Amino acid sequence: MENSNEIIYNVHDPANCAGRECTIHNRRIHHMRSWPQHYREDKGVMERLSPFGCGCPDPDDIDWRGPSGRSMATIHGCIVHPFTGSGICQRWELHGWAAAWLYNFPGYAVTRDGRIWSWHPDDTEEIDWTELPEEVAQEERKGMHPKVNLLNALGEWLRFDVRAVVWQAWHGEPIRGSRIVHVDGDRFNNSLENLIPSSQLVVA
Considering the domain 92-200, what is its CATH architecture? Predict the structure, then answer.
């Protein structure tokens, strides 16, 4: 399963979900994609584990079930989003742009326009949810892709390409900057819609 060490067996045939959302075979881009998947065997539903430890219904699992099966899959004990005051699993925005948490990097969020936001005051390990987040400064060197320094859950400062951070936050895949390319060729345009894996790039 995505971002998880859990393995599930005897899943349905991919043909059964062709052309529709599926939490196993056809995952959408959504604000919880970077969270680990967790199968609730007691309820028979797929969850996403938030950065705060709570299990939230996987949006793709809900959509796959259709109207008749959604009631059971959507019942859960969500916690309050520290910034918006709503449920942690609900869609939310920063400065007018849809935002997603950066899994395994507490106190960071990424907006679809390619900006990274931090609740770490003065770049310390402390997280202050009572204050508005600050945009993480991007280091730009001639001929290089913009980079950022981020503090992970282990208290380690790590350096990444901005394109890789944006991709991971929304697609839930590990940060591997060399795999991500810019559709328009502009390395400074790190909006989600402008990023694509090199394996999917079509050369004319």
Answer: Alpha-Beta Complex (3.90)
The domain limits of the chain are: 1-90, 92-200
Which pLDDT belongs to residue 104? Answer: 87
Look up the pTM and report it.
0.80
195 pLDDT exceeds 60?
A: yes
Interatomic CA distance for residues 161 and 177, integer angstroms: 6
Cα(120)–Cα(106) distance, rounded to whole angstroms? 9
Beta strands in 58-164 (DSSP E): 92-94, 97-101, 108-111, 116-118, 134-135, 147-151, 157-161
Q: Report which DSSP code applies to 87.
A: B
